[in-house]
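Side project, low priority. Logging it here so it doesn't get lost.
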Amino acid sequence: MNFIKLHRGILDTQAFCHPITFKIWCWLLLKANFKDSFMLLKTGKGYTEIKVKRGQVIFGRFKAEEELSIDGSTIYKHLEKLKEWNNIEIKTTNQCSIITIINYNNYQDKKTKVQRSNNE
């Protein structure tokens, strides 16, 4: 299955009160790795292998602008809000930025059963 879980408690969060922040937050949840993996990142003339853990996103400003249809400086401003609220951590290197969703495993636990509707 290819889905994420959103807890109803999200309605009471600071991110939910800000439409752009909420859009970026949901985008990060959807883009986050659901399992540890390795990715190749183009660097200059070659490639670098990067380990991306469960709950992490390799972040690129231009790709984010394209997918979100939001200006890069606006995205950065809202990422800073999410960082301030302890939703994410951002680690920047000379090759890329890796965003880690704090408590990803608590909210996206594989063992939690999905509630099924009466129609199924």
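Brief comment: The radius of gyration is 16 Å.
Revisit when time allows.
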